[in-house]
């Protein structure tokens, strides 16, 4: 029988805080913690619940298994570290990159993400045609995000031309409120949603450069100590919802909610 219990026994939740023998017990159970960040429209945290396009796909797949799932929203950096440290902990939506390849079990693709250098449209002094050009400006990124790792690899330096924050909401506020921040590197769709969510007109922002390394696939990934049986069960769940058409149905419904192209930051 399919179980749809989204609540966790207390001892499993405490495993997020305490290490030791608790890990061994968790790894032998069907309890799995799915950690994520608030990143509309992919993951939306509201009134203690987690929804969003990627979340609905994941919940549908998990409902095809006997996994007892818990969905918890954290700042991205904390979610990223927990998924590496805690058995039976999975993270979404995470970009799959060569640097991360050996850190997780990569379970299935949820959606795609693009990276853009975005700034205020009023900044007529900004002129970039390459990532190298962007080094002349102060760029803000999300801590431990693929954008953070990309710019570090390209030679950006924290406290010089790279400013790191803990959530996407802070990124947008930096552009509006801080004159010393010139650009952010983020997905234009998520920035659009964040702007609309905060009653900010997306039209005041502009894409100055799309990074060639994108788009990247957004995945569900799990801690390396998660059992093969659990990984396979989730993979089978995704296969089941694709076969039944539920995956396509959820995708179609969310695409209807995406702002029209004219409203997305260009």
TrEMBL record:
First and last residue of the signal peptide: 1-24
SMART domains xref list: PBPb (SM00062)
UniProt keyword annotation of Signal present: yes
Domain Solute-binding protein family 3/N-terminal: 31-258
Cited InterPro entries: Solute-binding_3/MltF_N
Keywords from the named record: Signal
PANTHER family cross-referenced by the UniProt entry: PERIPLASMIC SUBSTRATE BINDING PROTEIN FAMILY 3 (PTHR38834), SOLUTE-BINDING PROTEIN FAMILY 3_N-TERMINAL DOMAIN-CONTAINING PROTEIN (PTHR38834:SF3)
Protein name according to UniProt: Solute-binding protein family 3/N-terminal domain-containing protein
Origin organism lineage: Bacteria, Pseudomonadati, Pseudomonadota, Gammaproteobacteria, Alteromonadales
């Amino acid at each position: 029988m399919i179980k749809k219990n989204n609540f966790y026994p207390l001892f499993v939740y405490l495993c997020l805080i305490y290490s030791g023998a608790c890990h061994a017990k968790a790894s032998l159970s069907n309890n799995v913690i799915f950690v994520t960040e608030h990143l509309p429209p992919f993951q939306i945290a509201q009134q203690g619940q987690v929804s969003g396009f990627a979340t609905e796909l994941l919940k549908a797949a998990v409902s095809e298994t006997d996994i007892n799932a818990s969905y918890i929203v954290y700042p991205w950096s904390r979610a990223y570290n927990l998924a590496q440290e805690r058995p039976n902990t999975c993270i979404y939506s995470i970009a799959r990159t060569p640097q991360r390849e050996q850190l997780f079990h990569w379970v299935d693709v949820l959606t795609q993400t693009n990276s853009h250098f975005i700034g205020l449209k009023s900044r007529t002094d900004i002129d970039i045609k390459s990532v190298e050009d962007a080094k002349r400006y102060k760029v803000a990124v999300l801590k431990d995000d693929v954008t953070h790792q990309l710019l570090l690899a390209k030679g950006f330096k924290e406290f010089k031309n790279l400013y790191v924050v803990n959530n996407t909401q802070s990124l947008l506020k930096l552009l509006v409120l801080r004159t010393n921040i010139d650009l952010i590197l983020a997905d234009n769709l998520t920035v659009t949603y964040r702007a609309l969510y905060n009653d900010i007109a997306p039209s005041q922002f502009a894409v100055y450069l799309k990074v060639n390394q994108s788009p990247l696939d957004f995945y569900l990934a799990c801690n390396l100590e998660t059992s093969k049986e659990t990984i396979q069960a989730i993979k089978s769940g995704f296969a089941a919802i694709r076969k039944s058409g539920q995956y396509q149905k959820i995708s179609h419904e969310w695409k209807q909610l995406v702002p029209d192209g004219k409203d997305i930051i260009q």
